[in-house]
Design brief:
This protein has 170 residues and is α+β, with helices and mostly antiparallel strands. The chain folds into 2 domains: 9-39; 49-165, Sandwich (Immunoglobulin-like). The protein is built from 3 helices and 8 strands; from the N terminus they run αααββββββββ. It has helices at residues 11-38, 49-54, 56-69, and strands at 72-79, 86-93, 104-111, 119-122, 124-125, 131-135, 142-152, 155-165. The strands form 2 sheets. The chain has a 4-stranded antiparallel beta sheet with strand order 1-2-6-5, with no helix packed on it. Strands 4-3-7-8 form a 4-stranded antiparallel beta sheet. The longest helix has 28 residues, at 11-38.
Length: 170
């Protein structure tokens, strides 16, 4: 019978090494998960969500006021007056369908796929009564979220709308 030389790793090294390997895999998986979560542009937390929650009653009152006013918002894709840059065009009408002129309109929009990239929109009046335009980078087809605030005739109006854009650009 031939003598075979087998090197054996002692148990007092194998088992602690096994535990350390499992801990190392766990730390690696947690690191990968955190990096993936933080680096994902489609994940976004509502800004000032705590303050918005604390002012929920104000939000409900504003929605009721919006309903009382009966103002309507129509949204279209167009171009800025003068320079022809891509723009969001909003047309504001009152309950009777008359255009709302002289309004201060501000807004924000984002594509749902990159919800952390919110565009702030500053609208300017166009030559058409009740129409306001804001430059916007609408580079993706799909679902967009639009939020508007309108101040006109001593009233404050808010509007939130989901837009579905088809093929954008060439």
């Amino acid at each position: 019978m031939a003598n075979s030389v087998r090197s054996k790793i002692p148990a007092h090294i194998v088992w602690p090494g096994f535990v350390l390997a499992l801990l190392g895999m766990s730390v690696t998986m947690v690191t990968i998960t955190v990096v993936a979560a933080v680096g994902d542009p489609s994940f976004a937390v509502e800004s000032d969500y705590h303050d918005k929650a604390m002012r929920w009653d104000d939000h409900v009152a504003q929605q009721a006021r919006n309903s009382e006013l009966g103002w309507q918002v129509a949204v279209a894709i167009g171009s800025m007056p003068g320079d022809g840059e891509p723009a969001l065009i909003v047309r504001l009408t009152d309950r009777a369908g008359a255009p709302i002129v002289g309004a201060a309109v501000e807004g924000a929009c984002f594509h749902y796929a990159v919800a952390d990239r919110v565009q702030t929109l500053g609208f300017v009046a166009t030559d058409e009564p009740g129409a306001y335009a804001a430059p916007a980078i609408l580079h993706r087809a799909g679902l967009w979220d639009l939020r508007l605030t309108v101040d006109a005739a001593g009233e404050h109006f808010t509007h939130k709308q989901r837009l579905e854009l088809g093929k954008v650009g060439g």
